[in-house]
Amino acid sequence: MDCRTMAYQHITELNLRQVEIFRAVMKFGTVTTAATALGSSQPTITREILRLEDAVGFPLFERRRQRLHPTARAAKLYHEVQAAFIGLERINECVNQLRGAHDEVLYISALPAFAQTILPEAMARLYRTHPQVSVRIDSTDPRDQSPISGFNFDIGLTESTNVVPDADVISLGQFEQVCVLPPDHPLCARKVLEPTDFADMPFISLGEYDPYRQLIDRTFDTAGVQRRMKISAQSSHAACEMVRRGLGVTILNPLTALSYVERGVELRRFRPVLRFWVSAVCPVNRPAVATGKSLVRHLRATCAEARQQLDALLA
């Protein structure tokens, strides 16, 4: 233990001003720049850094050539401080959004597959009757949140029908996963495809932890069929783009596949049937937003229309 560490005798809890000063010095790299950003002076910031080190009980900076160099402990502390300030910035952003909203604010958490397909159409219909509502869309999986951590959405769009604690799960539509083929592919000659049709064929897969990827893999394993799986993509849209460019074929959710029909891909049914659900998750302990029910109704109607389009294409 060095002499400076032994000299710290008055260890106390940090106050907000000390944390702000520490963050500024770490962020800007020099005491002078940090002082300017905080509207203070260089001697004041230097004095406060010394008090901060006395408070925490260990050195945060090494003094070399009239400059401060963060220690390893300072780097770890800065990581935690940044996380706390990001949380504060999100709170301030939320306050500004609520302040600028003329009516309700509807928070939606939707998987990208839904945020890019059924949600825009449902939103367009909602705005025809509720033009003043403000909407905040987060393209993440609502299942990553829980009643323990607190739901941060009014409506979550998910591909599961599983029961979620403290939330209502509302079915919006039930579909079948479909085969997506490049134009003029030999398999386009058939209306219904089976695992054996894909033997030794270039296949675009979703990420290895995707539940539908795992379902498809089990189906082919059960059938004893080997595919050439050289490409995988984390999103269904990326998989469709790969197919569109002739890099292989795939099987995935019909909503994303339907959105690519006008771009030239072909869709075919797959057997055995692989179900695909669309559900809305609505937290029961969160204050209700009146337009939420209207949006759910539009989402269900949009799903029904997508189902009709698919049935017509796959007939």
From TrEMBL:
<dbReference type="InterPro" id="IPR000847">
    <property type="entry name" value="LysR_HTH_N"/>
</dbReference>
<dbReference type="GO" id="GO:0003700">
    <property type="term" value="F:DNA-binding transcription factor activity"/>
</dbReference>
<dbReference type="InterPro" id="IPR036390">
    <property type="entry name" value="WH_DNA-bd_sf"/>
</dbReference>
<dbReference type="Pfam" id="PF00126">
    <property type="entry name" value="HTH_1"/>
</dbReference>
<dbReference type="InterPro" id="IPR036388">
    <property type="entry name" value="WH-like_DNA-bd_sf"/>
</dbReference>
<protein>
    <submittedName>
        <fullName>LysR family transcriptional regulator</fullName>
    </submittedName>
</protein>
<dbReference type="Pfam" id="PF03466">
    <property type="entry name" value="LysR_substrate"/>
</dbReference>
<dbReference type="InterPro" id="IPR005119">
    <property type="entry name" value="LysR_subst-bd"/>
</dbReference>
<dbReference type="GO" id="GO:0009089">
    <property type="term" value="P:lysine biosynthetic process via diaminopimelate"/>
</dbReference>
<comment type="similarity">
    <text>Belongs to the LysR transcriptional regulatory family.</text>
</comment>
<keyword id="KW-0238">DNA-binding</keyword>
<dbReference type="GO" id="GO:0010628">
    <property type="term" value="P:positive regulation of gene expression"/>
</dbReference>
<feature type="domain" description="HTH lysR-type">
    <location>
        <begin position="14"/>
        <end position="71"/>
    </location>
</feature>
<keyword id="KW-0805">Transcription regulation</keyword>
<dbReference type="GO" id="GO:0043565">
    <property type="term" value="F:sequence-specific DNA binding"/>
</dbReference>
<keyword id="KW-0804">Transcription</keyword>
